Amino acid sequence: MRTDTTAIPSSITTEVSKTFWRSRGGVFLIRNSMVGVMLIAVLVFTLATPRFASPQNLQSILIAAAPFALIALGQTLVILTGGIDLSVGSVIALSAMTSAWFAVNDPSKIWLGFAIGVLVGLAVGIVNGLLVSVFAIAPFVATLSTLTAASGLAYAVGKGAPILGIPAAYGELANTRLGGLPVPVWLMFIGLLVIGVLLHKFAFGTRIYAVGGNAVAAEIAGIKVSRVRFQVYAISGLLAGISGVLLSSRVVNAAPSLGAGYELDAIAAVVIGGASLFGGRGTVWGTAIGLLLIQTLNNGLDIMLIPSYWQDVIKGLLIATAVGVDVFAIRRLNR
Amino acid sequence: MRILKTRVLGIAAAAALALGMSACSTSDSPGSAGGDGDRVRIGVTVYGQDNFAAQGKEGIEAYAKARDIELLWNSANGDVATQANQIDQYIQARVDGILVAPVQFDSLAPQLKAAKDAGIKIGFVNATVQDDSSVDVAVLPDNVAAGRQAAQMMMDHLDGKGKVAILQCLLGASYEIQRTKGMEEVLAKYPDVETVAKDGAQNIAEAIDKVKNWMTAVPHIDGVIACGDEIGLGAVQAATEAGKTVAVVGVDATEDGLNAIKDGRFIGSQMQHARTEFAAGLAALHQVVKGENAESNYTYTMAPVTKENVDDFYVNVVSGKDAFLARIADVVDRNLKTGKIEDES
């Protein structure tokens, strides 16, 4: 948006653009800039190939998004408190491995395996929560250590190899369709709804924003900061556990490398969605848009048969742009 | 404050690194530096921990047990620097030989030279390195031939016409480059075949989404030629989710791949049995250490596996693997003489 020309003195134009960005329309544009990027991406893909805009393809995008959505939701809560959860990729692997291990050992109790897989995720989340809240270890370091340890445990469960001979019934959970959509997609919708309502309509959410905005002030206001911190890591672990179980069920495969690097995509989704890594700012809506944008790009670029290395370059540029827009927006709003 | 934070982070990172390293070298690390006189001691470092490496370990351990070799085992967890450290450790431990399944093609030159200068024999298995001047013996799969074979299977199945996609492994890995080269060599000979898509996928989850998106882009794909069985199974799952059918061939013939051939989800795969291949690597290095005559290069040729012969392979890889491990030392020693490393009869 360059408005300065030779005809008008620059001081006046800056004044005009300042007023624009602070006007209602300007603020709306900045706040929803990623929706704009999303619409542009959808438009480009739709024009490039008629097959992009089809119900089946929308389903493909949603199915691919589901495992990321759950961990991105957990990540949103954690990032809102000013923390970060690096361990979720490893938790996916560990949950998938334990769940599959139980399923192979007793194929009659596959559901027990699923439950244990989810609980394992919760357990790692609780460890993260304790490390951060009770032992006051910096979140980056605390979850870096559980990232390493959980990955090691995932390998240990399979003695260094994937779990083989998983019964076909293990795939039923994630491959069952209800009303045309597979279970993981429904769980993604439910997750978005539940976390969105929790965060934006309940005191729980207010406390999270307060802790991320200013922990000292929150403490003075009577919020138990360490409890809030503990809760967000536990929830993040739980969601990663569910994600791991769903992912392994969908592919009927459990390898210790499953989910490796997913934490970065989740963090990217949250950041693209406009959240601040310093805490206190971000929404579930933003994360959902960030996530959909990444998945739409993955899908659309695949359909245009663009090689994956160029896809990575495009995604990198997008993250930088998102953060750039964010910085720009904050400057404009605060001036 | 900021400096303190950075420093704490640095220390934490270093500690995590050290932890990671010691964690992967605890299992069977040197320790008994002296060893007993005439028992041959061989240190093994493999690229990582996956199913293939786990099978390779079984083969190597079975051979070592049968031939009374003292074995030291380490996994590099996909990291070149870790692998270099492990070779240094083996040099310090004064082993007689080092067997390497390398992480990366252009790596390890200084460590290998140091080992050679220390009088240690060096064997390679599964893949080699760019500077192989220090290498005494190598047992390597013919990945180009495997790629050719996979593509040929698909061409025979499709009668040399139709639309195919190439699903590559981890882009840039040497086996991926070689297999893709072999596939494209064969496809170039068929003018009626169109390669409609080509990209890499690192695991089954990635492969499913990738192939599914291809199926949206190109409504009818006749066949997917996959660089590995795991991602090949991803292509099968993608077709199922999209409500389509597609012919799939893979490479490696893993347990899951063999099962897929049995029930018709795969039209075939190429047999690379890690137990046999890795045991042959150890056996060849053992010969060199003992000063016996050995070739410097052995090639493991992957046999084509289809519905017709899948049961023969299934016995040695899955159902009767313990029986196979019991006789693997004799099988491998014979193979070194005949030069047919892949022969499991």
What descriptive keywords fit this protein?
heterodimer; A: 335 residues; mainly alpha; ABC transporter involved in vitamin B12 uptake, BtuC; disordered N terminus; B: 345 residues; alpha/beta; Rossmann fold; 2 domains; six-stranded parallel sheet; elongated
Written description of the protein model:
The complex is a heterodimer of chains A (335) and B (345). Chain A has one domain (66-334): ABC transporter involved in vitamin B12 uptake, BtuC, CATH 1.10.3470. Chain A is mainly α and 335 residues long. In chain A, helix 10 crosses helix 12 (225-251). Chain A has 15 helices and two strands. Chain B is of the alpha/beta class and 345 residues long. In chain B, the strands form three sheets. In chain B, strands 2-1-3-4-5-11 form a six-stranded parallel beta sheet, with helices on both faces. A four-stranded parallel beta sheet of chain B has the order 7-6-8-9, with helices on both faces. A two-stranded antiparallel sheet of chain B has the order 10-12. Classes of the chains: A mainly alpha (335), B alpha/beta (345). The A-B interface holds A 49, 51-52, 54, 56-57, 60, 63-64, 67, 138, 140-141, 144-145, 148, 152, 155, 159-162, 164-165, 175, 247, 250-253, 255-258, 298-299, 302-305, 307-309 and B 5, 8-9, 12-13, 16, 19-20, 23, 49-51, 53-55, 57, 75, 171, 196-200, 202-205, 208-210, 212-214, 216-217, 219, 230, 233-234, 237, 241-242, 255-256.
State the end-to-end CA separation of chain A. Answer: 17 Å
Structural class of chain B: alpha/beta
CATH class designation of chain A: Mainly Alpha
Report the uncertain regions of chain B: 1-35
CATH domain class name of the largest domain in chain B: Alpha Beta
Please tell me how large the radius of gyration of chain A is. Answer: 22 Å
- The sequence of SSEs of chain B as H and E is HEHEHEHEEHEHEHEHEHEHEEHH
Strand order of the largest sheet of chain A: 1-2
Most residues in contact: chain pair: A-B, 43 and 44 residues
What is the total number of structural domains of chain A? Answer: 1
CATH architecture of the largest domain in chain B: 3-Layer(aba) Sandwich
Give the helix/strand class of chain A.
mainly alpha
Overall number of structural domains of chain B: 2
What's the arrangement of strands in the largest beta sheet of chain B?
A: 2-1-3-4-5-11
The outline of chain B comes out as elongated
Instruction: Give the uncertain stretches of chain A in residue-range form.
Output: 1-7
The run of helices and strands of chain A is HHHHHHHHEEHHHHHHH
What share of residues are in beta strands of chain B?
15-25%
Taking the sheet with the most strands of chain B, its summary is: 6 strands, parallel
From the 3D structure, determine the CATH topology of the largest domain in chain B: Rossmann fold
Helical stretch tally of chain A: 15
